[in-house]
Write a structure and sequence with these properties.
There is one protein chain. The protein folds into five domains: about 45 residues; about 100 residues, Beta-Lactamase (2-Layer Sandwich), CATH 3.30.450.20; about 130 residues, PAS domain (Beta-Lactamase, 2-Layer Sandwich), CATH 3.30.450; about 160 residues, Reverse transcriptase/Diguanylate cyclase domain (Alpha-Beta Plaits, 2-Layer Sandwich), CATH 3.30.70.270; about 190 residues, Alpha-Beta Barrel (TIM Barrel). Strand 6 and strand 7 form a beta hairpin. The C terminus is likely disordered. With about 725 residues, the chain is of the alpha+beta class.
Length: about 725
């Protein structure tokens, strides 16, 4: 009994222990389950919050079993539930490239895993493509090894792909740029390195590219020696001030090729104290050539390659400033070629250009390297002599010495395409210092002095005298006013009667006059040379012909003047016009005048150039009925040998010979020869500037038929000419009777 009671106690204790053990086991199991659940939840939370998308898919059905929110967002959806519904419905293909899913599955089933499988896929919300990289592995049954599902991760790499594509495009762009990209580093120890250059950089500069970097010294040794210091100074300035680097320089690519390069770069300071420039270099040779050509056109005369007015004026300004600093003098010489227009008119502009080019060479030889020879246009040259010393007298002596040297050079003559031509200069000199006012005043003073040299006989020089300013300024004023003289009807004719020995008026020469509003009546010598210089001579000459024809038409209505002929001078430029003959035909036809009453007076300059054309043109005008007179006969070099080639009706003996026959036997001999030749050729003769009975007797005794001069009549108005002819009418009727 007692034993039994003890046994029951042990049994109860054992049951109690077992009960407690069961309770503990159950508690432990619940704890393990709770812990597993917490671990699962943490795992799920971790997966849910990963940046990468995580999924599981069945290997048998292909259905997506699970996915985290990140994958849904990558695909453009909000929740994993939306993603599972979208994928498992099968209505949308995920991969952009057809067959891409099959390629993924083949590799997965073959290898059991796929790593970094890059594909372009569609977003489920918009359908727009994105780039992803996908990794996955197969999960198998532990007992059978049968594939249960595969799980994987997806990462959005769209920005990375676009960045890489952009880099590729930039690299292609860099290699196809007309210039080259580069990075240049200056380390704290002063050494340079080029960590990056584009292929186009190497190609442009013709360098051998090492495997690591361009050797900077190999590059610098190609920089033109005259430009290297400026190149390095610009680079150093950019480094010190951390400012944009831009510099143009010459680069010797090879012994036969020199280029102009433009380098531009932005500096950046690195943590170790180095400076790196990110830059670009390009070939600007064509632009530099164009700039040089434009500069040459803007600042140099194209015929002589001398500085033009603009560049000469700039250098004169610099010389004035330099003289002010040094307290020295300089000089300007203004040079005009005497009778240059005659050469152009008689031999053509080609000969004139040859002379100008040779003059330019001669003038260069007459001055120092530091001096400037320029051309202002036409036959006007200028010299700038700089640094002539502090003493004004010495400066004048140096300037006049240069002028004498130029005169001696011109004395040598000029060979123009085999023709020896003699030309003389007129030179005006101005000596200036640092206190001189303006370049315009200096140049004007030299021009005035040149004009004074011409007035004193040409082939000479004159030093500027301020007292001469007014007279020359008057000439310039006339030039400006001449253009308006025709419009304002200020030009008119006076008439120099042409008489026979007994004084009977048989004709008249029309002499142009200018009725200037302030200066009064001006003779042709005071404005015709200016008209030739300024190009107005054609307008004036056309007015003269129109007026001569109109005058003869008016004389038809005056009985006393119907038998009087009229002579008018023709300019060289006017007669050479291709339209001259046709215009004369039209004038004659429209006016109805008798063309035999109109005499065209030509000088020998008209015949000197292209005599065949001149002769044909004269013959055409002769067929109309016009007469021709050779004016100023005896003053030209070719008249005696060529006169018989042209259909002249008369010659006019130059008044310079007639006015001095009482005192110069040479003039008398020459006049006898002219009159004898005229008789032999059957030409009428008219003597100009007849001023005494002796001259009339001498000329008439040797066969001269008609006369002009103050001995008979000065130039008179049309009204005075009418009165003169009317006064002789009764006597003429008696003679005719």
């Amino acid at each position: 009994m007692d034993w039994m009671t003890g046994g029951n106690i042990w049994l109860v204790a054992a049951n109690l222990f077992l009960g407690l053990l069961l309770v503990f086991w159950m508690w432990r199991c619940r704890e393990l389950v709770a812990r597993a659940r917490r671990t699962r939840d943490r795992y799920r939370a971790t997966i849910e919050n990963l940046a990468e998308g995580i999924y599981q898919r069945s290997c048998t059905t292909g259905r997506m079993v699970s996915a985290n929110t990140s994958l849904a967002r990558i695909c453009g959806l909000r929740t994993s539930a939306e993603l599972l519904a979208a994928v498992n419905c099968g209505r949308q293909t995920w991969y952009v490239e057809p067959g891409r899913h099959d390629a993924f599955m083949r590799r997965l089933l073959r290898d059991g895993a796929v790593s970094n499988f890059v594909s372009e896929v569609h977003r489920h919300d918009t359908g727009k493509p994105i780039w992803v990289t996908e990794s996955a592995r197969i999960v198998r049954d532990e007992r059978t090894g049968r594939p249960l599902f595969y799980e994987g991760s997806v990462r959005d790499i769209t920005e990375l792909v676009r960045h890489n594509q952009l880099e590729e495009r930039l690299e292609k762009l860099a290699d196809n740029l007309p210039g080259g990209l580069f990075q240049l580093v200056r380390r704290p120890d002063g050494r340079f390195a080029c960590p990056y250059v584009s292929t186009s950089f190497v190609t442009l500069l013709g360098l051998e590219r090492p495997t690591d970097e361009i050797r900077v010294n190999d590059y610098l040794r190609h920089v033109h020696g005259e430009d290297l210091a400026g190149y390095l100074a610009a680079l150093d300035r950019s480094a010190r001030q951390m400012t944009f680097w831009a510099h143009e320089f010459r680069y010797i690519r090879d012994p036969s090729t020199t280029m102009w390069l433009l380098v531009t770069a932005t500096p950046e300071k690195l943590a170790d104290g180095s400076i790196i420039w990110h830059g670009y270099v390009c070939d600007v040779s064509q632009r530099k050539i164009a700039e040089q050509q434009i500069h040459k056109l803007a600042y140099y005369d194209p015929l002589t390659d001398l500085p033009n007015r603009r560049l000469f004026t700039q250098r004169l300004e610099e010389a004035i400033a330099a003289n002010r600093r040094r307290d020295e003098h300089g000089a300007v010489l203004f040079i005009d070629i005497d009778n240059f227009k005659t050469l152009n008119d008689t031999q053509g502009h080609e000969m004139g250009d040859l002379l100008l080019a040779q003059v330019a060479l001669r003038l260069r030889e007459c001055v120092r390297e530091r001096d400037t020879v320029g051309r202002f246009g036409g036959d006007e040259f200028v010299l700038l002599l700089d640094g002539l010393g502090a003493d004004r007298a010495d400066a004048i002596a140096n300037a006049t010495g240069a002028a004498n040297k130029i005169l001696r050079e011109f004395d040598r003559g000029f060979n123009l395409a085999g023709m020896l031509h003699s030309a003389t200069p007129s030179i005006g000199i101005v000596v200036f210092d640092g206190d001189s006012h303006t370049t315009a005043e200096i140049i004007k003073g030299a021009d005035i002095a040149m004009y004074e040299a011409k007035k004193s006989g040409r082939n000479n020089y004159a030093v500027f005298d301020p007292a001469s300013l007014k007279s020359v300024a008057d000439v310039y004023s006339l030039q400006r006013e001449l253009g308006a003289a025709i419009r304002r009807r200020e030009l008119f004719f006076e008439f120099q009667p042409v008489v026979e020995a007994d004084g009977r008026v048989v004709g008249a020469e029309a002499l142009m006059r200018w009725n200037h509003p302030q200066r009064g009546i001006l003779a042709p010598g005071e404005f015709v040379p200016m008209a030739e210089m300024t190009g107005l001579i054609m307008d004036i000459s056309e007015w003269a012909l129109d007026q001569a024809v109109a005058t003869l038409a008016d004389w038809r209505q005056r009985p006393a003047l119907q038998g009087i002929s009229l002579a008018v001078n023709i300019s060289v430029q006017q007669f050479r016009s291709d339209e001259f003959v046709e215009r004369m035909r039209r004038r004659i036809a429209e006016s109805g005048i008798d063309p035999a009453r109109l005499t065209l007076e030509l000088t020998e300059h008209v015949m000197a150039r292209d005599p065949e054309t001149v002769a044909r043109r004269m013959e055409a005008l002769k067929q109309i009925g016009l007469r021709f007179s050779l004016d100023d006969f005896g003053t030209g070099y070719s008249s005696l040998s060529q006169l018989n080639r042209f259909p002249f009706d008369e010659v006019k003996i130059d008044g310079a010979f007639v006015s001095d026959i009482e005192h110069r036997a040479q003039n008398r001999t020459l006049i006898e020869a002219i009159l004898g030749m005229a008789r032999a050729l059957g030409l009428d003769t008219v003597a100009e500037h007849v001023g005494s009975p002796y001259q009339v007797e001498f000329l008439e005794a040797r066969g001269c038929m008609r006369f002009q001069g103050f001995y008979y009549h000065p130039p008179i108005s049309i009204a005075a000419l009418v009165d003169l002819v009317d006064a002789q009418q009764p006597r003429l009727r008696v003679v005719n009777a």
